[in-house]
Amino acid sequence: MKSLIIAEKPSVGRDIASTLNINEKRNGYFENNKYIVTWALGHLVTNATPEQYDVNYKEWKLNDLPIIPNKMKTIVISKTKKQFSTVQSLINSTKVKDIIIATDAGREGELVARLILDKVHNKKPIKRLWISSVTNKAIKDGFNKLQDGRKFNNLYYAALARSEADWIVGINATRALTTKYDAQLSLGRVQTPTIQLVQMRQNEINQFKPQTYYTMKINAGGLTFQCTQPQSHSDKSVLENIKKEIEGQQGQIKSISRSHKKAYPQQLYNLTDLQQDAYKRYHLGPKETLNTLQTLYERHKLVTYPRTDSNYLTDDMVDTLKDRLQAIMATSLKDFAKRQMSQTFSPKQRFINNSKVSDHHAIIPTEVRPDISQLSQRESKIYMMIAQRYLENLMPPHEYEAIAIELEIGKQYFTFKDKVTTKLGFKAVYESNESVHKQVDKLQKGTMLNVSKIQIEQHETTPPSYFNEGSLLKAMESPQKFFDLSDKKHHKTLKDTGGIGTVATRADIIEKLFNMNAIESRDGKIKVTSKGKQILELAPQKLTSPLLTAEWEEKLLLIEQGKYDAHKFISEMKTFTKNVVNEIKESEQNYKHDNLTTTECPTCGKFMIKVKTKNGQMLVCQDPQCKTKKNVQRKTNARCPNCSKKMTLFGRGKEAVYRCVCGHTETQAQMDQRYKNKKSDKVNKKDLKKYMNKDEGIENNPFQDALKDLKF
Asked: Where is the active site (predicted)?
């Protein structure tokens, strides 16, 4: 009898098979005398669509809503049906005695496996592999500590409740809004408050009125002092009067204070922090960063589990810290890592805190030594960010002396402040020693200084910045900082539950909002489109607030802990959905297509609307039932012959036209001819071989001699 291991993806299945010497390859699984390892392809089973309950639901009708099944059905996803059949036959096989769930260690990973097991009515015992990296060592350690699968039943109930509630609310709210206003509109408990977040920031910027203020600084004894009384003032004349008062005078040092201080590195990365930093440094979108991390985790085995919201490690990881340092020594951080190998680490390190780690610890390097030359540029950048942050946290703190000098000139006071590094500590990774103000050492209380320069500077208050893809992620994590919540309990709930969405889903939510044209990015500034604004106006208010998600997450966490009934939660969501649908039905508002064109839909004859995509624009039929789309323009990989920039394609087929920002334009026919000529300029391999063939009888052929060492 054998144990069947179910991984979430083929790559993880192969890693487990390799580690446990499960070498006999079969169709969709590996096998040896003790184990069989197979895999899902992400989800193999999902919630049924409304039309799979009743064929009449295929047509969207307002009167059919709300659609609330008595019992939720699941279906096998058609694209991955073959792999499901393989997994099903293995689960039911007489040679399998028990199941080991090896999907991602978290709520959604549990859902992937349990939906499959429920679909095939599994009655066999379940064990759980719970690991945070897929290195050989982690997998072996995990199999030595397999847990009883029943321990994770509540985690599954929470995952299932989340999935079913999202279906009930999302399907009904979206269908209600779409059919009510005859437009492609979508609502969701996370996506709609995210649009609201962007709109609130936009309103704040639009309503902002800059205020002018003034500051004064003076130069005395080679040091720059700032006026302290007042530090700033809206009336320039106040500072001008002070200037007149102190011009030509000497100042006396009233006090010099020096205090020794320490600064510590930023916390180890969780997913959101890493996505935000990657956007700041390299302009990588959250989805790009997550995909890169996933590759570093699954394929290269260089980093730990990416989808984590924790910045801490657990005390049982102390013994592994040096193994990870050893791995970093294969990078440009070698010298710094080597110095830390002689250090002693204990559970008292600042970044170790068991109580602040739920499913997964912070993202850190594994003990696998990287070959940077085998990584893509993007993978290398992300890995080095993680490695450097990890290394900084193992290094000593940065130490410096904070110096403050108070200067009195007449009745006015000015201060000079500076920091002088005494020990670089972790900052040695990216800084050299700072220059020290030698003149400060010569000064003492009572010293008289000549005032050599007085400056009054004008400033303006600035509005907050527009969200970008990095800062929007962070705002979704802490929406209580942006929404005006009168109830302190709600503020705490949002903070405790980690905001709206999860670390694993936020990047997808932002991507979805771009794709549905609810938000757009101009020069990195995210703004709400006209469609997004109308969604906010038409949506029930409860769906535009982050509180709904906070309340959900609070209850889902209680379900995970066995302190709340999942059936009760679903019942509450059904009642909530009925109220939402009724509110939409009774609304007297209107939806206006501001991007309506005069182009008729070739399928149904209605006018089409112009929508922006990430690569250009397209025409979409205004009727959501029709779903006809036409490309209007899109960025291509075709290069302009004048300036080599990528050209934009307008239209389709023979009528298509390519245009460049430099002004160059060419038709599809001209483009085809240009590429044809370009290809004809190249000598093909067949002709080269012909020239290389000695039987051709061409003696003393210089072409042949020049190419004799080439291999084709």
From this structure: 305
Strands of 377-514, DSSP E: 398-409, 412-423, 448-460
Known catalytic membership, residue 305: yes
User: Is there a contact between 218 and 415 (Cβ–Cβ < 8 Å)?
Assistant: no
265/392 Cα distance (integer angstroms): 6
Amino acid in the structure at residue 673: Q
Instruction: Please give the backbone phi and psi of residue 318, each rounded to the nearest 5 degrees, phi first.
Output: -55, -40
CATH classification number, 2-145, choose in 3.40.50.300, 3.30.70.100, 1.10.760.10, 3.40.50.140 = 3.40.50.140
What is the structure's pLDDT at 637? 80
Where in the chain do CATH 1.10.460.10 domains reside? 164-206+465-586
pLDDT tens by residue, 89-116: 999 999 999 999 999 888 889 999 999 9
pLDDT-derived band at 135 (thresholds 50, 70, 90) equals confident
Instruction: Please check if 104 is assigned to a binding site.
Output: yes
Alpha carbon distance 585, 346 (integer Å): 61
SS3 label, residue 646? strand
pLDDT tens-digit profile of 221-240?
A: 889 999 998 999 999 999 99
Q: Which residue ranges does the chain devote to CATH 3.40.50.140?
A: 2-145
Is 212-264+398-460 in CATH node 2.70.20.10? yes
Of 214, 305, 312, 383, which is the active-site residue? 305
Q: Cis link prior to 66 (omega < 30° from 0)?
A: yes
pLDDT attached to residue 708: 46
164-206+465-586: which CATH topology? Topoisomerase I; domain 2 (1.10.460)
Cα–Cα distance, 448 to 693 (Å, whole number): 93
Question: pLDDT digits over 636-669, tens only?
Answer: 888 888 888 888 887 767 777 888 877 788 888 8
CB 39 within 8 A of CB 10: yes
Residue 436, pLDDT score: 52
Strand (E) or helix (H) holding 486: none
Task: Write out pLDDT tens, residues 22-39.
Answer: 999 999 999 999 999 999
Q: At what angle do helices 107-119 and 153-181 cross, to 10 degrees?
A: 90
Are 505 and 513 contacting, i.e. CB atoms less than 8 angstroms apart? Answer: no
* DSSP structure string for 51-105: GGT-GGGGS--GGG-----SS--EEE-GGGHHHHHHHHHHHT-TTEEEEEEES-S
Provide the phi-psi class of 105: left if phi over 0, else alpha when psi is between -120 and 50, else beta: beta
DSSP element (H, E) containing 171: helix 153-181
Ranges for all domains in the chain classified under CATH 1.10.290.10? 271-394
pLDDT band for 697, please (50, 70, 90 cuts): very low
Tens of pLDDT, residues 426-448:
999 987 665 555 667 778 899 99
Task: Return the number of other C-beta atoms located less than 10 Å from residue 437's C-beta.
Answer: 15
* CATH superfamily label, 271-394: Topoisomerase I, domain 4 (1.10.290.10)
